[in-house]
Amino acid sequence: MSKQIKKPWQGRFTETTNEFVEEFTASIKFDQTLAICDIRCSLAHAEMLASEGIILKKEAKSIIKGLKSIEKDIKREDLSWSIQLEDIHMNIENELIKRVGEVGKKLHTGRSRNDQVSTDLRLYLRDITDQITHGLENLQSVLLQFAENETGTIFPGFTHLQVAQPVSFAHHMMAWFEMIDRDIDRFNDYRKRMNVLPLGSAALAGTSYTINRDQVASILGFERVSKNSMDAVSDRDFAIEFCSNASLLMMHLSRWAEELILWSTPQYDFISLPDSFCTGSSIMPQKKNPDVPELVRGKTGRVYGALFNLLTLMKAQPLAYNKDNQEDKEPVFDTAITIKNCLKAFILLIPEISLNRDKMSMAATQGFSTATDLADYLVKKGMAFRDSHETVGRIVQHAIQSNCTLFEIDLGVFQSFSKLINDDVYEILSLEGSLNSRNSYGGTSPNNIELSIKEAKQRLVDRGPDA
Ligand code: ARG
Questions:
Q1: What is the pLDDT of residues 322-340, one digit of tens each?
Q2: Residue finishing a domain among 339, 362, 385
């Protein structure tokens, strides 16, 4: 049996903790991720305790010195953690007392691990949120650079996974851009809501010391302090909301991944993924598998799982803090790592994709994709839309039976369906003609897409580097 370390809360206990229980209840294996945030939180607390005269200035000085030396060792990965000390908070406090002596025991004045852990996790998630929005903005730039050269590239637009109307490939990419844009908005809104300081709520009821919570908030960059101590120590909305934003983001990346996977199959053959992003099969020598997008699609499951994990974790908890809350960390950390990696994968992959433009435009001719253009043509010549829809339906039927495209139908045949059709029809039946005509705001005409790329670039500039 390992030598027992004295626990900070040991006073009222007559027995030592069962070894299994020690293992079972400890969080240090995973909450060591919060080590640097915990130090930041303690540094701010110590500074405030001294400026309020709750501890002496020189006591604060040695506490701060001790904390900084621990921080250095953590960064050098030169500190070992003890399961007997349960979690990151008690491990660091114990280490502090080892390094600075009795005065280290004063750090925990006026606080509890309950407000401490919530503060640490908020600091952690705020940093991660900034990294994620930065990554999302990078991904947007990568998309813009790609889309810029593809405004005139004809691509089959799908509905029901059937070729519907020709679109510009850049239009398709800009659809992805808009999804990511909403993700950025969501993370930015979230950041404002979560940037609240719980420290000072102590265990649940606040504290009798004359602490200055605003000072701690300002040192740690929180916009305001929490208003209700019971809510503050038990609230995990900020963790749930993070996972909710992450789930929406993963849903977007997964839709996107799915398209890349389909398009790179021999059946579609619209794109090739770089060899350096694919893997082979151990049995089928010809295979080149799109592992990266497949993994992004697959990892969506664990992020949704984390969201449901946290929602379920919280659903039946009475106020205020319960040990259940310790279970919030692993799903949050896992989500943070997962979305960071998935973003990185896409940022690296997208510029490396090569396009098979001939195949794209050939596919866009399938499925009578300019039939709507023909219906609109008849409307412009005076026919009511419902009638033109019916007429074109019959023309399509004829084309199916004659096994030809709309473009291949003779003018005489067209005119047997409607006298309104002249030889100018062939222009509107062409893919380029169809694309150019879709000039409504938000539509696919290359002119529009050029404008929308310009506007999107401006949006990136307006957001600024620190938005
Ligand atoms: N390790 C704990 C957690 O992650 C810290 C808070 C402990 N508080 C308590 N009352 N046991 O939630």
A1: 999 999 999 999 999 999 9
A2: 362
